[in-house]
Design goal:
- The complex is a heterodimer of chains A (about 260) and B (about 260).
- By secondary structure, chain A is mainly alpha-helical.
- Chain A has one domain.
- Chain A has ten helices and two strands; from the N terminus they run αββααααααααα.
- In chain A, helix 3 runs parallel beside helix 6.
- By secondary structure, chain B is an all-alpha fold.
- In chain B, helix 2 runs antiparallel to helix 3, helix 3 runs antiparallel to helix 6 and helix 3 packs parallel to helix 7.
- Chain B starts with a helix and ends with a helix.
- Classes of the chains: A mainly alpha (about 260), B mainly alpha (about 260).
- At the A-B interface, helix 1 and helix 7 of A face helix 2 and helix 9 of B.
């Protein structure tokens, strides 16, 4: 009985954390919506009104919940304490191992925080769904891109920090880039021309703006195609960079007798 | 514990941290870039919209900086001890703080003082001063004195919230997640609370008085519609910090009594 009780209590405390996380996410959405409501009121700027921004806030916040930033610490830890040697002996390549490890995390996040956050915030604030169901398909592709790009970026940070021996500073700098250029709070529509130009040249827009904009059907037709091609190019580029750095890191690890 | 001893311990802690100068400076630079990004997003937003509920860029920058600065000051003292307390208790290392002939609370927070917030203080302090120079406030002695007192009070208030959550470690051990929630909730005051409905304004003023950290002091200084109400709230902001901190300290003492009682 004591064991049952312990397990139950452990689960309860975990459940408590999930609830708190949910409240945290919804308050993020709420804050954003409050600001947009103060800024836009009942009017619209450049064809964007409050209900559009509500949908945008819910979707971009939700997308940001399933990205793979946690992995930076996992890889960093493994590289530094030598656990990586064990993983390298496994018959599966390390990056793929890490990726599926993260996919497991994401599935958990989707079930326990993403779905409830979307459901609760659409009940509270109202969510505009896409008109065409092909949009949903494109949206899922965009999500996949977001996940992959966040995977490679985190991997890149962990690998670069292998040389600098600290992830801390790099992580802050990348977070800074993501904060501004993912558009997860301020959509790229509202950027001034130069800033928008910069944002469109970087991969970070795929981590917030692109999925939300696709969901809302503001990117359409040939434009979607172009955006997706750009996404694929980024994924390939990042993949190549990571692969090169990874080889070097391993060589260094072996030379050092790690 | 005397203030001299307290500052002496803090100095020792800072010195030992400074041994890793390079990674420390690198980290500080990273954080400055990180917060610059937050400012940049607000700036980009206000480039487009000019103002939020009558608050322009310099005023929002002031509001945001006041929150960040006082958080950094408060957190320098209490963040590391409070978030670490659970693990310290689990490892049985807390005894060393309560068995010395020193007041346990100041000794505990002094020996875990965190100099790492210096980057927060640098960036928020710089923007704060910049925003002060660029507003149309005429700086009387009273206003300057008010600002200094408001910063002290708000720093106590920020620390108090962390002490309350940290004290819960005596009961639950695992409280890390509550800190994440605190940071999320603190996001509410990154913007003037007038953007939220009356319900949330009341909560942020009376239940979890986060608005006392930056909103009411800013109102007082900028005198947005200088009314008796603004003045009263503005003055309340000067006392609420120390008062809440004392309350938090009482909660801490209860926790510690429970701990030493159960440990035997």
């Amino acid at each position: 009985m004591a064991i049952v009780q312990k397990a139950f209590l452990r689960n309860m405390s975990y459940r408590f954390e999930i609830w708190l996380r949910l409240i945290g996410n919804i308050s993020v959405v709420f804050i954003q919506i409050s600001i947009w409501s103060a800024l836009l009121g009942t009017g619209a700027i450049e064809g964007i009104d409050l209900s559009t921004m509500i949908t945008y806030s819910i979707i971009s916040t939700s997308v940001s919940m399933i990205l793979m930033y946690q992995m930076i610490h996992t890889i960093d830890g493994k590289l530094k304490n030598g656990d990586i040697a064990m993983d390298l002996l496994k018959p599966i390549s390390f990056p793929i191992l890490m990726f599926f490890d993260q996919v497991g995390n994401i599935c958990f996040q989707v079930l326990c925080t993403l779905v409830p956050t979307i459901v609760i915030s659409s009940l509270l604030f109202g969510l505009t769904f896409p008109h065409e169901w092909t949009t949903l398909l494109l949206f899922f592709i965009a999500i996949l891109f977001a996940v992959l790009i966040s995977f490679f970026i985190s991997y890149l940070i962990a690998l670069i920090s292998f040389w600098f021996l600290t992830t801390f500073a790099l992580e802050w700098m990348f977070t800074a880039l993501i904060t501004v250029f993912s558009g997860s709070f301020l959509p790229l529509w509202f950027f001034s021309k130069e800033w928008r130009g910069v944002a469109e040249m970087l991969p970070f827009q795929f981590l917030g703006f692109i999925p939300a904009a696709i969901f809302m059907e503001t990117i359409e037709g040939m434009e979607v195609l172009w955006v997706l091609v750009k996404g694929v190019l980024w994924i390939i580029t990042l993949w190549i960079i990571v692969q090169l750095l990874w080889r070097r890191a391993i060589r260094r690890l072996v030379l050092q007798g790690g | 514990m005397s203030i001299r001893l307290f500052t002496y311990i803090v100095q020792l802690v800072i010195k030992s941290k400074m041994e890793y100068k390079e990674s420390f400076i690198l980290g500080a630079m990273g954080q400055i870039v990180g917060y610059t990004a937050n400012y940049l997003v607000i700036w980009l937003l206000l480039q487009k919209f000019e103002s939020i509920n009558g608050w322009g860029w310099t005023e929002i920058a002031f509001l945001y900086s006041l929150n960040l600065l006082t958080y950094a000051i408060g957190a320098s003292f209490v963040y590391s001890p409070m978030i670490g307390l659970g693990q310290i208790l689990i490892d049985g290392k807390f005894e060393q703080y309560i068995t010395k002939p020193l007041a346990s609370f100041p000794y505990f927070i002094a020996s875990l003082f965190n100099i790492g917030y210096i980057a927060h203080i640098l960036i928020s302090g710089t923007v704060l001063i910049w925003s002060l120079v660029n507003t149309s406030i005429d700086w009387t002695i009273v206003r300057i004195l008010y600002l200094i007192l408001a910063i002290i009070s708000a720093s106590f208030l920020q620390a108090a919230f962390m002490v309350v959550i940290g004290s819960l470690s005596f009961y639950f051990l695992r409280v890390q997640y509550l800190f994440t929630i605190l940071f999320r909730v603190r996001e509410f005051i990154a913007y003037p609370i007038s953007v939220y409905g009356t319900f949330f304004q009341i909560i942020l003023t009376w239940i979890i008085p986060l608005a006392m950290i930056n909103y009411y002091p800013s109102l007082f200084l900028f005198s947005h519609g200088s009314s008796i109400e603004t003045t009263l709230y503005g003055l309340a902001a000067l006392v609420v910090g120390p008062v809440v901190f004392l309350l938090a300290y009482q909660i801490w003492r209860r926790g510690i009594n429970r701990y030493s009682g159960a440990g035997g």
